[in-house]
């Protein structure tokens, strides 16, 4: 019994008298191993942050260049669209059938939005062939001039809003607005739809540019 008492006396006890074991200190290798996931996670966050910063820096450089390219392309398209408008009216002045036909899409349509004799709103359509025949066969000098033109381009579709004055044999005839809808083809921009208004009220009769 004395031997057992001495053995028990050498064992550490809790306050309740229950034996406990001493906590083992981790080795250096275990400490390093435990710290590796934290280090790797921190390194991963650092790399991700660096990658995001690089992407943002690249975007800052690329976006202005892309915007500039789009602006330049739109300006070129707007000039080409107005070139078609000018070619149409040059063809009218010169009574050049080939030039007139060259600006129209194969399925082009011409409309005028006005009023009838009773003052009610009315829309009329003129066939392309009839329009060209009337222009080429007319003995009068037709001079339609536009000003304050506005052009909108979206991909292969364009719209031109062109206020105008029409002079016949150098005398003012009427003013109005021409609205062109154009589509881009392999041969460039072509008029798909042309609608106009015609009035003698509120016109700047002397304006030619």
What does this entry look like structurally?
The protein is α+β, with helices and mostly antiparallel strands. The protein is built from four helices and seven strands; from the N terminus they run αααββαβββββ. Strands 1, 2, 3, 4, 5, 6 and 7 form a seven-stranded mixed β-sheet that branches.
Ordered list of secondary-structure elements with their pairings:
Elements: H1 2-9, H2 28-94, H3 97-102, E1 104-115, E2 121-126, H4 128-137, E3 142-146, E4 150-154, E5 157-168, E6 171-185, E7 188-196
Parallel strand pairs: 1-7
Antiparallel strand pairs: 1-2, 3-5, 4-5, 5-6, 6-7
Low-confidence segments, ≥5 residues, pLDDT <50?
Answer: 1-21, 56-73
Task: Kindly provide the radius of gyration, computed on alpha-carbon positions and rounded to a whole number of angstroms.
Answer: 42 Å
Topology order in helix (H) and strand (E) letters: HHHEEHEEEEE
Beta-strand portion reads: 25-35%
Helix content: 40-55%
For the record, the CATH class is Alpha Beta
Largest sheet: 7 strands, mixed
The fold-level CATH name is Nuclear Transport Factor 2, Chain: A
Average pLDDT: 80
SS-based structural class? alpha+beta
Count of helix runs: 4
Spatial separation of the terminal alpha carbons:
126 Å
Judging from the principal axes of the Cα atoms, what is the shape? globular
Q: What is the CATH-assigned architecture? A: Roll
Total tally of structural domains: 1
DSSP E strands, number: 7
């Amino acid at each position: 019994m004395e031997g057992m008492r001495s053995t028990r006396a050498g064992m550490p006890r809790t306050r309740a008298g229950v034996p406990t074991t001493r906590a083992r200190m981790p080795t250096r290798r275990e400490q390093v191993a435990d710290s590796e996931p934290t280090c790797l996670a921190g390194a991963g966050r650092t790399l991700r942050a660096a990658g995001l910063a690089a992407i943002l820096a690249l975007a800052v450089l690329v976006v202005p260049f892309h915007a500039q390219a789009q602006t330049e392309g739109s300006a070129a398209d707007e000039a080409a669209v107005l070139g078609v408008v000018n070619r149409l009216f040059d063809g009218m002045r010169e009574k050049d059938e080939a030039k007139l036909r060259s600006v129209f899409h194969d399925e082009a349509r011409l409309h005028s939005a006005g009023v009838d004799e009773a003052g009610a709103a009315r829309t009329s359509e003129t066939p392309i062939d009839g329009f060209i025949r009337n222009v080429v066969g007319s003995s009068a000098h037709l001079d339609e001039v536009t000003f304050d033109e506005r052009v909108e381009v979206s991909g292969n579709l364009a719209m031109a809003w062109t206020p105008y004055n029409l002079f016949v044999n150098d005398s003012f005839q009427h003013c109005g607005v021409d609205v062109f809808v154009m589509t881009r083809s392999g041969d460039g921009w072509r008029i798909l739809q042309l609608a106009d208004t015609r009035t003698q009220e509120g016109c700047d009769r002397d304006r030619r540019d």
